[in-house]
Q: What sequence folds into this?
């Protein structure tokens, strides 16, 4: 489902001395089936932006269109919108409340008024997507580890089968293994379900690996927007916004400066490894040595 | 909605009122409230009103903030005024040759009461606008310290107060976040029968309680691990003390108070 944002402005506590202009004239078009990474320094307006996309915040000015529904109009059907656009908040495990994992995940589908059979099917499917085995179904969500709680919470949104999935820092505060797992699952889900995914993060590595397009927010505006390779070639601009390129890009830059001819658009460890191995193999062939 | 609540509304700027010691401000506020009720003639009312206006200006807080603070009690003011106008015995007001149930005495009394209420709210807001919650509790603790000898746990009371005040904005923010998260899962807090709405609160209240307990626990551990101990031997980073601005304020206030009493006796 495509998203069109035009002239979006948002001001917190308008008219009070604590007024904060959090979004300034944001214009974006996100195509159906894109996987977009949104990065930016803390306070750059990422969370504010995504809360507009399922109507939790109403813009101070501007319009937003999701699919063919203009959600900023008076009387827009919020219930329908929230079934189409699933939003996973930052630290979503803090919103768990039911006695069992099964009940918690079925909260969303239940609010949609689905039949018991349908709910059951969706809960099982969602648990499967996030890699929670069915034996957990009747356990309390509060007995789980942090990473598992988070997966329950994400499943709670997936069970609504949204067309657009938005995740606000889904990997924040997890250990490296937990991060890896969640990112892989999101990526797999994206490939399988062909949904539009918006992925908010401030980790360059995570975004670099997963997203096909990156939007950089800075002080409430869209500062950069493009393919990962285009974004990471602007190391100076990123640094001025308090961000950094992935470590592997820095390594490649350093190697290039030392006269080793490498493609400057490498930004994942996998690709760097493959390229360097190939280069070494070529070099050995040329020198006629055995590997 | 929730974001409109500006509790413990401290206004962090610099003004003579901000620089005053909290104890002076609390004591003068109490005296000022007495003064508001001492005024019993036109000159007295004018004097109290002008003095309150001076406090408002001296605080350098935008006047519209004071008027915003009045909004929540507007209903109370109007309600008492209406009661006074209709229920006070006296000369009936005539409108277009008809005798109405309203009285002139009631009208005057309503005006006086409304003025007193407004002045009361404004001066109390002046205290919270110009004093940070932490300093305010410091002041209250110091003022209560004589009662410590009688066994009143003043230190603990003050500590509990500052922790409570400190966490109000945090909990409001948390509530807002949880409500949004549940709305994203299709929760509906605003429609349906009363029973349905009460039931709909569980997905919000349970996470809120869990988070409040977690925060309390974390705070306790953090305090414990820094060897926190209550009691009178604790010193402060920012000790409050009286300065020249307090003496000047006290002098001005006493002059005003004396003038008011003179007016009450003479007129
Ligand atoms: N509920 C709120 N009330 C007032 N200001 C807010 C609120 N939420 C966010 N802000 C402010 O809006 C700006 C953008 O915040 P946010 O969208 O949360 O940034 P990010 O998610 O990129 O860290 C920040 O300056 C923040 O302080
Ligand atoms: Mg954020």
A:
């Amino acid at each position: 489902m495509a998203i069109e944002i035009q002239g979006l402005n948002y001001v917190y506590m308008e008219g009070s001395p604590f007024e904060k202009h959090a979004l300034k004239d944001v214009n974006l078009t996100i195509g159906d089936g894109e996987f977009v990474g949104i990065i930016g320094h803390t306070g750059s307006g990422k969370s504010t932006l995504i809360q507009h996309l399922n109507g939790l915040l109403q813009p101070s000015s501007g319009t937003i269109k999701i699919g063919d529904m203009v959600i900023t109009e008076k009387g827009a059907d919020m219930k329908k919108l929230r079934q189409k656009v699933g939003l996973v908040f930052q630290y979503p495990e803090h919103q768990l409340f039911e006695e069992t994992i099964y009940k918690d995940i079925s909260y969303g589908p239940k609010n949609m008024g689905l039949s018991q059979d349908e709910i059951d099917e969706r809960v099982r499917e969602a648990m499967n997507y996030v890699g929670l085995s069915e034996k957990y179904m009747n356990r309390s969500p509060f007995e789980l580890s942090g990473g598992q709680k988070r997966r329950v919470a994400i499943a709670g949104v997936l069970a609504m089968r949204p067309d657009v999935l938005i995740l606000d820092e889904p990997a924040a505060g997890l250990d490296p293994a937990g991060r890896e797992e969640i990112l892989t699952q999101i990526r797999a889900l994206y490939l399988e379900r062909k949904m539009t995914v918006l992925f908010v993060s401030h980790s360059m590595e995570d975004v670099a690996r997963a997203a096909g397009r990156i939007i950089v927010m800075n002080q409430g505006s869209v500062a950069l927007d493009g393919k990962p390779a285009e974004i990471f070639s602007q190391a100076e601009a990123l640094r001025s916004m308090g961000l950094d390129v992935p470590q592997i890009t820095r390594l490649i830059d350093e190697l290039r400066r030392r006269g080793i001819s490498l493609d400057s658009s490498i930004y994942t460890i996998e690709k760097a490894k493959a390229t360097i191995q190939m280069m070494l193999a070529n070099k050995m062939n040329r020198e006629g040595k055995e590997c | 909605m929730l974001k409109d609540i500006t509790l413990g509304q401290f206004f962090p700027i610099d003004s003579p009122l901000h620089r005053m010691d909290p104890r002076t401000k609390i004591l003068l506020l109490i005296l000022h409230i007495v003064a508001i009720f001492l005024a019993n003639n036109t000159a007295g009312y004018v004097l109290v009103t002008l003095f309150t206006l001076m406090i408002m200006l001296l605080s350098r807080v935008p006047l519209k903030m004071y008027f915003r603070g009045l909004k929540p009690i507007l209903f109370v003011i109007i309600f008492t005024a209406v009661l006074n106008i209709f229920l006070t015995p006296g000369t009936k007001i005539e409108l277009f040759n008809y005798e109405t149930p309203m009285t002139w005495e009631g009208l005057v009394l309503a005006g006086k009461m409304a003025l007193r209420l407004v002045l009361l709210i404004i001066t109390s807001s002046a205290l919270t606008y110009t004093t940070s919650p932490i300093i305010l509790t410091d002041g209250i603790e110091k003022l209560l310290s004589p009662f410590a000898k009688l066994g009143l746990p003043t230190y603990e009371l003050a500590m509990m107060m500052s922790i409570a005040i400190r966490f109000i904005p945090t909990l409001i923010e948390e509530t807002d976040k949880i409500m949004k998260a549940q709305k994203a899962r299709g929760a509906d807090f605003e429609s349906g029968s009363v029973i349905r709405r009460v039931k709909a609160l569980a997905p919000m209240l349970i996470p809120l309680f869990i988070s409040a307990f977690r925060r309390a626990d974390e705070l306790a551990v953090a305090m414990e691990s820094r060897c926190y101990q209550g009691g009178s031997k604790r010193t402060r980073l920012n000790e409050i003390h009286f300065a020249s601005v307090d003496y000047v304020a006290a002098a001005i206030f006493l002059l005003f108070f004396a003038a008011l009493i003179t007016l009450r006796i003479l007129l």
